[in-house]
């Protein structure tokens, strides 16, 4: 049920009862569906989007373009797995174009990220080259504008 | 000097909008949750705003044709044909107006002579009757009721029609009740219009916000195209209220007459809004779908909330309003709205602001976040419990 998933993706804190009213379905059916989606890993995880800068926590993020040599039988997957298993890696995508993997790495300092790239990532067998881009500012993440300055300007009452 | 003596009698005769007084109180209070807003809570989708900015960069700051930019009129013709299979010539049968409000004023002024009567079903949008009066006509109000889900029937209209009746003015999906009229319902009205040779002005600004079945454009009914002026616009479906852009479509003569007034009073709709509207028609559908589904979720939430509270309430099928009855509380609409605002800080609009038959009801807009709706429902529930004691 696409509608249910869309509602949950926007706000997973809504109760099954409220979702049931909004989607015009029995609450038990909604609760059962949510459970099914969780069991089948259609719903993988519920997460919170945090503005760490505002929270006063320093963070450094880098996007690393990685070129690799695909391996017989497993293609890119085996190397990809060796990379995404690191907890420092926040996201990993196989890309078309000039490089193969796009790796997002997070650390508490520039040095920490640089160390990860030079000692962990680039030393993996099959990794041909890496190009590291440090993020300077985060404007939008997971469909959410980080510092949204749009405000409501409507009158309190209008016809 | 008593300047009020100098004001034109026709203007003096019309009452100020019924929601004005209420607005003044609510606007000054802090922490108010408002269910009183008659416009979307969404901001105009970015692609539409961006196209306007781009237009300004390219120097689009001039007048346009009185009728509006041809590209926009062509877009309107195309979208009306796609949605309702009605055909209008973009060169002569479409006029771009400053919202439906201007379209309504133009239509009334173009058609009415002294003593001409206009049938106006109530509750209805606040400007209907005044527009008729200002144009020199006489509004004949027809009460609708909750038992018939605020729809009108030909039988009912028959009671009010006279040899002076010239126009029937309808607005479905309806502000303030959220009522809609099915194709079948409208066919009865079309037969009535034909029988009495009436012109129908159909305000369809909420057409795209229909949650049960599909909207029927009045002029798509057999024999109705040329005797109907359809008023529509971009305010509600595309969240473009402040842009002030709408349109009127009808036969060549009616549109020419309306354009004559428009050219001397308004000249043209602002070009900035017209450019934005072109973009809205070109690629706004996905956003409309998203907003409509959001309104629909909220509609169910608020409807369920009122039912659980024990308020009598019919299920609204269109627009973004719900119109529960507060008769059980023993308060008038105004008393209910005022006391609720003072004690629980929830603003809504007393039903009688939309005509006498709205007394005993309140209009709640669900064009606000689910969080606000949930909180407002809690407060209203508390208020109702408190007056029971």
Question: Your description of this structure?
Answer:
The complex is a heterodimer of chains A (159) and B (389). Chain A is α+β, with helices and mostly antiparallel strands and 159 residues long. Chain A has five helices and six strands, in the order H-H-H-E-H-E-E-H-E-E-E. The longest helix of chain A is centred in the N-terminal third of the chain and has 13 residues. The mean pLDDT of chain A is 94. The mean pLDDT of chain B is 96. Chain B has two domains: 145 residues, Aspartate Aminotransferase, domain 1 (Alpha-Beta Complex); 236 residues, Type I PLP-dependent aspartate aminotransferase-like (Major domain) (Aspartate Aminotransferase, domain 2, 3-Layer(aba) Sandwich). Chain B is of the alpha/beta class and 389 residues long. In chain B, 42% of the residues lie in helices and 13% in strands.
Blueprint of the fold:
The complex is a heterodimer of chains A (159) and B (389).
Chain A: H1 2-10, H2 16-23, H3 27-39, E1 60-68, H4 77-84, E2 89-94, E3 101-107, H5 110-121, E4 127-134, E5 140-141, E6 144-145
Helix pairs in contact in A: 2-3
Chain B: H1 9-13, H2 20-28, E1 33-34, H3 46-57, H4 70-84, E2 94-97, H5 99-111, E3 117-122, H6 128-134, E4 138-143, H7 154-158, E5 165-171, H8 183-195, E6 199-203, E7 228-233, E8 246-249, H9 252-265, H10 271-283, H11 285-309, E9 321-322, H12 333-344, E10 346-347, E11 349-350, E12 362-365, H13 370-388
Parallel strand pairs in B: 1-10, 3-4, 3-5, 5-6, 6-7
Antiparallel strand pairs in B: 2-8, 7-8, 9-12, 11-12
Helix pairs in contact in B: 3-10, 4-10, 5-6, 5-9, 11-13
For the secondary structure, the number of strands of chain B is: 12
What is the helix content of chain A? 25-40%
Number of helices of chain A: 5
Query: CATH first level of the largest domain in chain B: which class?
Result: Alpha Beta
CATH architecture heading of the largest domain in chain A: 2-Layer Sandwich
